[in-house]
Design goal:
about 325 residues, binds alpha-D-galactopyranose
């Protein structure tokens, strides 16, 4: 019988570059994602892609997922390597999620593959950590667990407060009278993997000076002598505080405050974490000045990709929108 696996992308209302240092984040799933239709059986995994060239053709036991061709098939290979599935799968991948735009398309792909191969979606932490290891193994980006964990844990109409220090997830109701709009900057994230690893290393260096960033406060961050490390730590420590302020604002339905927190977060990503670009900044500024928009920020690792706006459902944004709506469903298998 033909199966259908689905995994969504995500945007972060707040909390970027906070997952890998045990901090707080507030992502939500979107209505774009990766779908796999296929049939289980046999000893091979054979997956074509509607949007990309080539076919992933893999045996059940793989030695070097990072050498798989075509390159997109490395994500499939990473999951197969980590999962050691009992049987094969033949099918087609279809994605409505643009890749390389900060919308977590790689996590959606790994989660959809894991679901199609029979991963236990009732064990969200297990599946997310498998997909995180798969991405490390496949492409060498030291990504955090946030993206796959959001894809397997979210519930409709709710954002997820993720506490990566306590391994705790809480659903936060998204206000009934608001929407998120995603606007693509059109800018490729060329620097992304090397700069991402560099930011990660800088956070580790800061932690050697002031202890875990999760426990540190902005005052401790500003006490660091090295200006770069100080600024990196300042972003993480202020963002952790903003996440909890945002949870209160969403619960109160206070969209003005929610929007201001997003603008503050963007400024922190731009000035302290230095992962924004002039084009992302200009888009955020355009959206900030648009009627019906409460706030806007870049989302994802940065260096290009998308910005999001928290807006009223009736707002006319006068820029092309990739997707617009409310938090959608988690990954599932039919
Ligand atoms: C990438 C990583 C995530 C997270 C974001 C930044 O998407 O995969 O783990 O660190 O960047 O928030």
């Amino acid at each position: 019988m033909t199966l259908r696996a689905w995994a969504p992308g995500r945007v972060n209302l707040l909390g970027d570059h906070t997952d890998y240092n045990g901090g707080l984040a507030l992502p939500m799933t979107i209505g774009l994602g990766v779908e796999i239709r296929g049939d289980r059986g046999g000893d091979w995994i054979i997956l074509g892609s509607e949007g990309k060239d080539g076919t992933a053709e893999l045996p059940l036991v793989i030695q070097h997922p990072n050498r798989t061709e075509p390159p997109w098939a490395r994500y499939v290979a990473g999951v197969v390597f980590e999962m050691l599935p009992a049987g094969g799968l033949t099918g087609t991948i279809r994605s409505t999620l643009p890749s390389g735009r900060g919308l977590s398309s790689s996590a959606a792909l790994t989660v959809a593959v894991a679901a199609a191969l029979g991963a236990d979606l009732d064990d969200p932490e297990g599946v997310a950590s498998l997909c995180q290891r798969a991405e490390h193994r496949a492409v060498g980006v030291p990504c955090g667990i946030m993206d796959p964990l959001c894809a397997v844990s979210a519930i409709p109409d709710h954002a997820l407060r993720m506490d990566f220090g306590k391994q705790q997830l809480d659903s936060v109701r998204f206000p009934w009278d608001a929407e998120i709009a995603i606007v693509d900057s059109g800018q490729e994230r060329v620097l992304e993997s090397s700069a991402y690893a560099q930011r990660r290393a800088e956070c580790e260096q800061a932690e050697k000076l002031i202890g875990p960033l999760r426990q540190a406060n902005p005052k401790a961050a500003t006490s660091i002598g090295d200006p770069t490390l100080s600024a990196r730590a300042l972003h993480v420590t202020t963002e952790n505080l903003r996440v909890d302020d945002m949870v209160v604002a969403l619960e109160d339905g206070d969209l003005q405050i929610a929007g201001e927190l997003m603008l503050d977060s963007h400024a922190s990503l731009r000035d302290d974490f230095e992962v924004s670009t002039p084009r992302l900044d200009a888009l955020v500024e355009h959206l900030r000045l648009t009627d019906g928009v409460y706030g806007a920020r870049m989302t994802g690792a940065g260096f290009g990709g998308c910005v999001i706006a928290l807006c009223s459902p009736s707002a006319d944004l006068s820029v092309p929108v990739v997707w617009r709506g409310r938090p959608s469903d988690r990954a599932h298998l039919e």
